[in-house]
TrEMBL record:
One example of a Gene Ontology biological process annotation: bone mineralization involved in bone maturation
The EC number(s) this enzyme carries: 3.1.3.75
Database matches in SUPFAM superfamilies: HAD-like
Active site: D7, D9
NCBIfam families hit by this protein: DKMTPPase-SF (TIGR01489), HAD-SF-IB (TIGR01488)
CC cofactor: Mg(2+)
Gene this chain is encoded by: Phospho1
UniProt keyword terms in alphabetical order: Hydrolase, Magnesium, Metal-binding, Mineral balance
Residues that bind Mg(2+): D7, D9, D175
Any one cellular-component term (Gene Ontology): extracellular vesicle
Matching Pfam families: Put_Phosphatase (PF06888)
The protein, known as: Phosphoethanolamine/phosphocholine phosphatase
Length: 237
């Protein structure tokens, strides 16, 4: 059994879903720039509250999420994974939100492939507004206050070990700076799949230059997720 960990924004989908939600909508100046040094999660809470007051309803948000295009080759990768679903356990760890992620995965017909989705909780309140909260708190100095993906991944692996599930290898598919932190826990048996030219890829390259051998996992950059599918296909041979 292999564990395959996915990020969502700019990994499964080809955009940042928070940007997709505000595209074409007039925001006040205070909400137009994401905060420097402040909490991005809190910023998005304010953005969603503002849009709710402007009459944007959960159904409107759902339609936006459903229409975000998948990243190149991602449909092909999911096709491969659904064919071999008994070999791969899939989890998703994302700093987006549960509402948007689940809407998109259902629309793409791949929701059932995922055993667990870890993301910031989003729900509809009494007013019919979409609201957002932080995922958890943690002590990691590298990550945003609302989410450390390393902590989530480590706790998940420990929980599965208690359930007598040991993975032969862990594969991590991501793109962002916040995907670098969890990929640092991967061992020499594991593989990091950073999206080519994105922050996760650059941070891995920098760490390899600074401290050769410190980043233990094999690194397989991708432009199309079909390359990830091909790598996994070879592995099964």
């Amino acid at each position: 059994r292999f564990l395959l960990v996915f990020d969502f924004d700019e990994t499964i989908v080809d955009e940042n879903s928070d940007d997709s939600v505000v595209r074409g909508r007039a925001l006040p100046e205070a909400l137009r720039q994401s905060p420097r040094g402040g909490s991005y999660n809190e910023h998005m809470q304010r953005v969603l509250a503002f849009l709710g007051e402007q009459g944007v309803r959960p159904a409107d948000f759902r339609a936006v999420y459903e229409n975000i295009p998948l990243s190149p080759g991602m449909a092909e990768l999911f096709q491969f994974l659904s064919k071999h679903h008994e070999l791969f356990e899939l989890v998703l760890i994302s700093d987006a939100n549960t509402f948007g992620i689940e809407a998109k995965l259902r629309a793409a017909g791949v929701h059932s492939l995922f055993r667990k989705i870890f993301s910031n909780p989003a729900s509809v309140d009494r007013r019919g507004f979409l609201t957002l909260g932080p995922y958890h708190s943690h002590k990691c100095l590298e990550c945003p206050a609302n989410m450390c993906k390393r902590k989530i991944l480590s706790e998940y692996l420990a929980e599965r070990a208690r359930e007598d599930v040991e993975f032969q290898r862990v594969f991590y598919v991501g793109d962002g700076a916040n995907d670098f932190c969890p990929s640092g826990t991967l061992t020499a048996a594991d593989v990091a799949f950073p999206r080519k030219g994105y922050p996760m890829h650059r941070l891995i390259q920098e760490s390899q230059e600074k401290q050769p051998g410190a980043f233990q996992a094999a690194v397989v950059p991708w432009e199309s997720a079909a390359e990830v599918a091909r790598y996994l296909q070879e592995l099964l041979r």
